[in-house]
UniProtKB/TrEMBL annotation:
<dbReference type="InterPro" id="IPR016162">
    <property type="entry name" value="Ald_DH_N"/>
</dbReference>
<feature type="active site">
    <location>
        <position position="259"/>
    </location>
</feature>
<dbReference type="InterPro" id="IPR015590">
    <property type="entry name" value="Aldehyde_DH_dom"/>
</dbReference>
<dbReference type="Pfam" id="PF00171">
    <property type="entry name" value="Aldedh"/>
</dbReference>
<comment type="similarity">
    <text>Belongs to the aldehyde dehydrogenase family.</text>
</comment>
<keyword id="KW-0560">Oxidoreductase</keyword>
<dbReference type="GO" id="GO:0016620">
    <property type="term" value="F:oxidoreductase activity, acting on the aldehyde or oxo group of donors, NAD or NADP as acceptor"/>
</dbReference>
<protein>
    <submittedName>
        <fullName>Aldehyde dehydrogenase</fullName>
    </submittedName>
</protein>
<feature type="domain" description="Aldehyde dehydrogenase">
    <location>
        <begin position="15"/>
        <end position="481"/>
    </location>
</feature>
<dbReference type="InterPro" id="IPR029510">
    <property type="entry name" value="Ald_DH_CS_GLU"/>
</dbReference>
<dbReference type="InterPro" id="IPR016161">
    <property type="entry name" value="Ald_DH/histidinol_DH"/>
</dbReference>
<dbReference type="InterPro" id="IPR016163">
    <property type="entry name" value="Ald_DH_C"/>
</dbReference>
């Protein structure tokens, strides 16, 4: 199938060709997909300068909200219309199932983008600021106003596991708020993000308002996170990388929004133990466990642990692993040989520390090419085990037992992470009580919702700030207070 033909990068309204190339590999079969021209570092500097100029001149920020919305709807229209080449591009660069690329990345991403525009337009961005009357009289203030204004120049750095939808999740709220943005996708999956540059051209975004830069290393990312002309960094990726970004941003005290790693727990009350197979499948299906919100720790009553391990193992043995062009394949590869090696190292460390591999743990037979790993179930007795503490980012789940609900909450919260969580129980009131005690940015009780109106983000080392929801829009805005009175004579 045809994939996106563009191989250049997009800098301040111009398509740029560099001398270096970024080689894109299909992790499903290790074939060469394409060579994308890397953005020269001086052109990344140019993108920053033009973003600064476009913002300071008000080319985008000073447009009426309705005009920004109209242009961004046209921007989204162009991306949606490119489905026939965009979906195969997503499949080729990430090795993900076609259904995930089409329904989750593209269709859900487009829906999220349009919802974000609606949400922004429904919010108040200038409002009266309540102040006690005595303070107003004392200061001779006629009006006290709180304004939400764009931050300025935003560097948006997206991950490999969901490049398109993460791009939508950052670009649309940032642009609706009036910011100028430089998007830097993961070097592992840069191709699909070029559609944003193509859409900017088609929709008529003013020059400098959006750039898409590509690199094989980290030099451009480091320039974006440290440059004094960049006002904000929005990053989704690992906690290790997030720590580095905080250090790089510190000298210029720029705003940083981080959605980082997770080691989320799915907790089952005794009356929901029948649900464990379906819950475990959600961890590995489509993404091969490569999702920061994946609930890779399963917590069940200790006396039902053996039953849960058996049910989960049965579900994992039934999953067919293979390339996306195989119609019966429900799970694809991880992104690279290095990522598969990491998964294997943590499985080995888990065994050394007392965990038992009940299912999987090896490379599938018959798949000599591609970075595959069997869906793996670990029976883990202690939450201190590496498989219960480290983010694996692969198709591996750890099943742990708890004595009572206090113990379950204690296990779930015993982590440096706090990104997401799940609680299942027919006794909804009890399940909600457990959810309220979890130190995590989102908790799903018996169901889930993905919407531009529902915020996500992390506690602890899972991040700073929020994406989506009103809070996600406010991340891309500064707050200004204005006190207004008559001039004294």
């Amino acid at each position: 199938m045809a994939i996106l033909a563009e191989r250049r990068t997009y800098v301040a309204g111009q398509w740029v060709t560099g001398d270096e190339v970024v080689r894109v590999e299909n992790p499903a079969d290790e074939t060469h997909v394409a060579d994308i021209t890397a953005t020269p570092l001086d052109q990344v500097e140019h993108a920053i300068g033009e973003a600064r100029r476009s913002f300071d001149a008000g080319r985008w920020a000073d447009l009426a909200v309705a005009d920004r919305a109209r242009i961004l709807h046209a921007f989204i229209d162009h991306i949606e219309a490119a489905a026939d080449v965009l979906v195969p591009t997503l499949v080729a660069e990430a090795g993900q199932p076609t259904r995930f690329a089409e329904m989750t990345q593209l269709r859900a991403g487009v829906g999220l983008a349009r919802q974000t525009i609606d949400l922004y337009q429904s919010m108040t961005h200038e409002e009266a600021s309540p102040v006690p009357v005595d303070d107003l009289v004392r200061g001779r203030v006629a009006l006290s106003i709180r304004r939400h204004e764009p931050v300025g120049v935003v560097a948006a750095i997206t991950p490999y596991n969901a490049a398109l939808i993460m791009g939508f999740q950052k670009l649309i709220p940032a642009l609706m708020a009036g910011n100028s943005v430089i998007l830097r996708p993961s070097p592992l999956t840069p191709m699909s993000s070029l559609i944003f540059g193509m859409a900017a051209d088609a929709a008529g975004l003013p020059s400098g308002v959006l750039s898409v830069v590509v690199e094989s290393g980290t030099a451009a990312a480091e320039l974006l996170t440290s440059h004094p002309a960049v006002d904000m960094v929005s990053f989704t990726g690992s906690t290790l990388a997030g720590r580095k970004i905080l250090a790089q941003a510190a000298p210029t005290v720029k705003r940083v929004s981080l959605e980082l790693g997770g080691k989320s727990a799915q907790i089952y009350l005794a009356d929901a133990i029948h649900r464990v197979a379906a819950g475990a499948a959600m961890v590995v299906m489509s993404t091969a466990g490569q999702a920061c919100v994946a609930a890779t720790r399963m917590l069940v009553p200790e006396d039902l642990r053996a039953q849960a391990v058996e049910a989960v193992s049965g579900a994992y043995r039934a999953i067919t692993v293979g390339p996306p062009d195989r119609s019966d394949a429900a799970m694809g590869p991880v992104i690279s040989a290095a990522q598969r090696d990491k998964c294997e190292r943590i499985i080995a460390a888990a065994e050394e520390n007392g965990a038992k591999v009940v299912c999987g743990g090896a490379r599938p037979e018959g798949l000599s090419r591609g970075y595959y790993l069997e869906p793996t179930v670990l029976d883990v007795a202690d939450n201190a085990n590496p498989a219960a503490q480290e983010e694996i980012f692969g198709p591996v789940i750890a099943v742990l037992g708890y004595r009572d609900l206090d113990h379950a909450v204690s296990i779930a919260n015993d982590s440096i992470y706090g990104l997401s969580g799940q609680v299942y129980g027919a006794d909804v009131a009890t399940a909600v009580q457990v959810a309220r005690r979890l130190r995590t940015g989102a908790v799903n009780v018996n169901t889930t919702v993905f919407s531009a109106y529902a915020p996500s983000g992390g506690y602890k080392q899972s991040g700073l700030g929020r994406e989506r929801g009103p809070d996600g829009i406010r991340e891309f805005q500064e707050v200004k207070h204005m006190s207004i009175g008559e001039l004294s004579r």
